[in-house]
């Protein structure tokens, strides 16, 4: 019985180890806060500070945004105009569906099949932002993010992203120099992550969205390439949520967005708000399943032992019969000889 218990425990340990290995990057994201690469508040000059002009400019003065066509919905026009008006000396590029596809077909034809076969339009909108940052460099901003101040201080880093909750980084505002190794890694990983996870929200988030970007970022941190702040540097700096959009001096304002979120997204948001309860429930269910497996395993062993006893008894009966028969024959033979 002790040997059977050890085998059972070993099998379960191997299963858990496999699951942990498969989900290691996702689990590691839960404790990754990006503190080593954080853009500290003391690094950021105040709006209109003369010291801004003394900082090096690495990222080109280009703002990228995406939409279906040139007709921007009324609810986002104010946010869009705030970025344009604050950055009159920046080049502004609005990538429509037609323009984005033409760009991919011309510059990155190896990705065109994946791009065309995305099930959701938002996946194409996610993908194009990575490619234009690799190709042109600059700053990408979602249409539902307005600009609260000029972006000049953020141009001093080879690349930057911003923290999001509950973990990881977001892809709604980010900047980089052309051909930055992190975003090169991102576009090279897109095809491999193009999988259908049945729920649209999870499919989008993990194939092209913030969760996908966060996983690639976590892998990039472990690659040894996340070094160097100057020209040719590969480091990705992280803007805090507060400096992103929570204060008067923050760079962005947040407006109505997330038009692609559906019922599955609301379910996942609810799960995120009740993660402690779900974690406790998960452990309870896992314990019950483990006990059921142990009970089933014990029953199998008992059934096997009973079958073994019956088989052994069946094999022995003929031997006893032959032995008794031989003895009777010998007695009969002796009687005859006498």
Order of helix and strand elements from N to C terminus: HHEHEHHHEEEEHHHEHEHH
| Sequence stretches where pLDDT stays below 50 over 5 or more residues | 260-270, 317-338
Taking all residues together, what is the mean pLDDT?
A: 82
Report how far the terminal alpha carbons are from each other.
Answer: 58 Å
The number of helical runs is 12
Q: What is the overall silhouette?
A: elongated
Task: Report on the biggest sheet.
Answer: 6 strands, mixed
Total strand segments: 8
Name the structural class. alpha/beta
Q: Describe the strand arrangement of the main beta sheet, using strand numbers.
A: 2-1-3-6-5-7
Alpha-carbon Rg, integer: 32 Å
Measured as a percent range, the helix fraction is 40-55%
Strand content: 5-15%
